[in-house]
Amino acid sequence: MSLTTEQAYSDLLSETREAALLESCGAVLGWDEQTYMPVGGAEHRSNQLALLAGLAHEKATAPRVGELLQHLESTRDVPADSVMSANIREIRRDYNRATRLPKSLVEEMSKTTSLSQQAWVSARKNRDFAQFLPWLEKVTRLKREVAQAIGYGQGVPYDALLDEYEPGMTAADVTTLFEALKADLVPLIAQVRDSGRQPRREILTRRYPIPAQQQFSIAAAEAIGFNFQQGRLDVAHHPFCSGFGPGDCRLTTRYNEQHFPGAFFGTLHEAGHGMYEQGLDPALWGSPVGRACSLAIHESQSRMWENLVGRSQSFWKWLYPKARETFPEALGQTPLDEFYFAINDVQPSFIRVEADEATYNLHILLRFDMERPLISGDLAPADVPGMWNELSHKYLGITPPHDSEGCLQDIHWSAGLVGYFPTYSLGNMVASQLFEAAHRDLGDLSSQFARGEFQPLHQWLTTKVHRLGRKYPALELVERVTGEPLSHRPLIRHLQHKLGALYGI
Ligand code: ZN
Questions:
Q1: Is the residue at 155 inside a domain?
Q2: 270 given a catalytic annotation
Q3: Within its chain, how far is the Cα of 100 from the centroid?
Q4: What pLDDT score does 467 carry?
C-alpha cells in the first residue's frame, strides 16, 4: 500500500506526539516528586517513572517511526525550509540517537548513574573523592561507549555527547568560542579584583521575611510576562522549570530569610525558562518544532531575564521603591545605588551555582577543559582533583580547600550529564547577543524597563525565538535573528559596560 506524503507525515507526528505525552506524564510525576511527594513515596514513584520512561523509549524507537521517516525522506514533495522538513530532520536525529544505543547500555547507564549519584552525595558530604572515584571511572567508561555507539563522524567522541544537549554543535565550535571568551574575560575579572572596590555585601543578607519575598518574587515574575493562569511557582530544594505542555508550566524556587538574591533572581531565572515554554507554538506541541531549540537557547532566555533585565539599573529604578516598601527593615535606609552594586558584586568563589554573572563563565571554562580530556582518555579520573585545583587557581585565582568545594560540587558527572556544562555559558553569550539585537529593533530598552514595560522585549522574543522552536539549529537561529554568527563579544561588551561603571575600570 502506498502512502501519501501527507498521510505519512501525519502518522509520524501522531507517533511523536504520543511519545511526548508519555514524557510529559513523567514530567508531572517528576515535578510532584520534588515539590509535594512525601518521602515514603520514593520507591513507588521510581517504579512509575521507570515504566513511563520505558514506554516513551519504545514509542520513540518503534520500527514504524523508521519506516515513515524513510518514506518521507525519499519523496520530493517536502517543501524546503518548512516546518515539515524541520520536523522530519529532527525526528530522524532523535530516532538515530535513540536506536543506536543498545538497550543493555541504556539500562546499565541508568542503573550506574542512579547508584553513582548516591555515592556522590555521600562523597561530597564526607569530602572524600576516593569514595566517588570508582563511580566516576565507570560513568566515564560508559559515556565513551555511548559516544562510540552514537558516532561522531570526522569529529571527536565528545561531539556525540555534546550533541545530546546542543544539537549540531561540536567541541571545536565550543573551543573556538570559549578560547575567545577566556582571552577577554580573565583580564576583565583581574581588573575588577585590582580596582580595590567592593559593595556592601551585608545588604543582601539582612532579614527578608519569607512571605514578603514570596509575594515580591511572584509579582516580579508576573510583571516580566510569566503567565500564572498557565503556570505555578512552588518550593523545591533545587530550583527548576518544567513545561508539561500547552497551558501548564511549573516553576520552583527556594527561600532563605537571610539571603535576598537566591529566591528573587532564581525566580526571574526560572520565569525566563517558563516564558520560553509558554511561548512555544501550542499547535505544534509534541513535534520537534513545538519544542525548545536547545539547552543553550533555553538558558539564554533565563539568563536574559535574570541578568540583563533583572540585574540592570533601569529595572531597579522601577522596582526599588516597591522593594523598600516590602522590606522596610532591610532596605529602608539603603540607597538604590548601594543595592544595585551589591546585586552585581563580582568576586571569584568556589561554588559555581553561587557565582556572579562574570566569574560564572570561568567555572564553565574549567569544566569544559576537563570533560574533553576525560572522554578522550587524556585525563584519568584519578587525576581529576589535581587538575581541577590547578585550573581553579589559573582561572579564578583561588584553590578550593577541599574537593567538596572543588570537583565534587556538581551533580552532573555522577548523573552521566557529560557535555552539558558548556550550554550554560553558551546561553550567556546567546542572551547578550539577542539582547543587543532586541535593543536595535525596539529602541531604548532601559527606559522601557524603568517604566516597568517588559512586553515589547517579551513579544520580540516570542516571535523571533519561542515560536520557531526547533525549526533551525541553535547557531543558525542566532545568526538569523541577530544577523551575526554567535560570538562572545556582546557578552564581554555587556560586562565591560556594567562593571566599568561600578568598579571604575
Ligand atoms: Zn537555567
A1: no
A2: yes
A3: 26
A4: 98
